[in-house]
């Protein structure tokens, strides 16, 4: 079982800018906990687009990665970001949001889906030369609010094309919190057996009363990689529902490791609250 903690996703949309030192302190606490396989800690995108992440390059050098079992993941949106992230030995994974909604792909990365496929190919080459691994987030993987055509077969088609490029980790993203247990189960049941050498994860968004059924659907279909964020912060503002956020990490830990690490979990929840206040 791999749990990925996503402080980057949790705080990138906050209006108040959180200081670099506070971010460093919090991410180091996550690293020291050794509860997570990976920490999605920052991004190398335009500061104009996401000003909260403008200090990622200043943060990475201050992280105690050598003392942790966890690895670092940074989000990138193009080749420039990939080249910048690859300058840091501390970073193991580069995450790229590949939307199967044409509208969202253009809004998010200023590229069509076909152009994004070419971009992923270039990013994969850059990453391999730097001994890093690409993680593709299939955003809008369970539907979209724009009226763009969606069905499970569309998701499977694009994963087919991306896997040919040598991508070995995909995270299916419930970007706007509309995934149903049946669609979650269907996608994982059809993907996991078809690609035995590929790792599939779930980046699920939920309301406080739908989290468990979504985790159960993915896990029962064979998914063993889950993204979360403490207190369920973050998520997509286009969800049009203030209760929809990232899957709460404390819920994931309670589901997979009940009654374990309670002291650490409580300490990290308090630390996150201090970070954003």
Automatic annotation (TrEMBL):
Q: Which residues form a coiled coil?
A: none
The Pyruvate carboxyltransferase domain is annotated at 1-266
Q: What are the EC numbers?
A: 4.1.3.4
Which InterPro entries does the protein's record reference?
Aldolase_TIM, HMGL, PYR_CT
Task: Name the UniProt key words of this record, in alphabetical order.
Answer: Lyase, Metal-binding
> Which Gene3D superfamilies does the entry link to?
Aldolase class I
Q: Name one GO molecular function term.
A: hydroxymethylglutaryl-CoA lyase activity
Lyase recorded as keyword: yes
Pfam families given in the database record: HMGL-like
Q: Which domain of life is it from?
A: Bacteria
UniProt similarity note: Belongs to the HMG-CoA lyase family.
What's the protein name? Hydroxymethylglutaryl-CoA lyase YngG
Question: What is the species of this protein?
Answer: Emticicia aquatica
Gene this chain is encoded by: yngG
């Amino acid at each position: 079982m791999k749990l990925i903690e996503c402080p980057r996703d949790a705080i990138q949309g906050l209006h108040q800018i959180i200081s670099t030192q506070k971010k460093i302190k919090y991410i180091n606490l996550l690293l020291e906990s050794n509860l997570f396989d990976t920490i999605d800690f920052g991004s190398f995108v335009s500061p104009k687009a996401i000003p909260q992440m403008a200090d990622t390059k200043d943060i990475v050098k201050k992280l105690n990665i050598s003392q942790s079992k966890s690895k670092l993941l940074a989000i990138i949106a193009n080749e420039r970001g990939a080249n910048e992230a690859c300058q840091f030995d501390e970073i193991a994974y580069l995450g790229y949001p590949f939307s199967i909604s044409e509208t969202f792909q253009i809004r998010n990365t200023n590229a069509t889906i076909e152009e994004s496929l070419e971009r992923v190919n270039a990013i994969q080459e850059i990453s391999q030369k730097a001994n890093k691994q690409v993680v593709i987030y299939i955003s809008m993987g369970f539907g979209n609010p724009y009226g763009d055509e969606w069905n499970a077969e569309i998701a499977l088609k694009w994963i087919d094309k991306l896997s040919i490029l040598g991508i070995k980790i995909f995270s299916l993203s419930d970007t706007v919190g509309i995934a149903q247990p049946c669609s979650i189960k269907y996608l994982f049941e059809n993907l996991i057996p078809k690609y035995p050498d590929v790792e599939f994860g779930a980046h699920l968004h939920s309301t406080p009363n739908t989290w468990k059924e979504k985790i159960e659907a993915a896990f029962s279909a064979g998914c063993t990689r889950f993204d979360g964020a403490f207190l369920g912060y973050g998520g997509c503002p286009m969800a049009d529902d203030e209760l929809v956020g990232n899957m709460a990490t404390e819920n994931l830990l309670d589901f997979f490791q009940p009654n374990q690490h309670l002291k650490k979990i409580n300490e990290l929840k308090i630390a996150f609250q201090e970070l954003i206040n």
